[in-house]
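Sat 14:20. Reprocessing the chain from the morning session after the first attempt stalled halfway. Input below, unchanged.
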Amino acid sequence: MSKLSIKTHKFYAIFVPMIKSENLTRIIFLFLIISALTSCIPRKQVTYFIKEDTTRQAIIPPYEPIIQANDRIQILVTSVDKQASNFFSFSANDNSANAPSYLVNADGIIDIPLVGPFHVAGLTTTQAKDTLKRRFEKYIYSPTVIVTLKTFRITVLGAVNHPGVFESDHERLTITEALALSGDLNVNGKRTNILVVREKGNGKEYGFVDITSRQIITSPYYNLHANDIIYVEPNMRTRLAALQTYFTTLSIIAGVVLLTLLVVKK
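Finished this time. Tokens:
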């Protein structure tokens, strides 16, 4: 008998008993259990605002949009002096649709006719309104000033159904609203550790929120700022699914090989 025949005979002796009916049933049953464990997601991992201590009352922190570089703000100035209002090219009536908007440059400055350059980056809309009102009082009697954030852009990335860049016409946007705009998290999204990247001066600030907790509304990242980036990390199930796919493929190949050996032996 040749050396090759001896090696082949030993291979049969080791692996053929493994695929007998009883052993094969056990292997398949074990594989089904592993598949079920890796494909199931605990309810707590996909449920939002899980019930906590009902005696605790969440206090929502006050929120007001902060103006940043590259924002576009709208300024509406009205007064009883229609001629003066027209001189500044502002609306003489309360019509915000006709009010001009200004792009905040990289230095955080807007340039208003006659009033001149005005640094607004880092100010809330109320602070900007109060400061502008004092300046306009030099030229207009008893002006009323309204400052609003014209564009509110955020980016949502990661394990969501429709990642992308979204814009809102409102000055306030919460993280739950942003996730809704992106089609919500998919089943692979990690809901307990969502990253929010926020511009802070010349750098970036990183914060995390847990949307499975009712206390999320107390987080400083619940109310988003313009140009925030939201990243949803894939959970462990995604990694296990990739591993499961690998083992499934490997099992199929092994099964085909062993069955082929059985047929050849017969």
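The mean pLDDT is 76.
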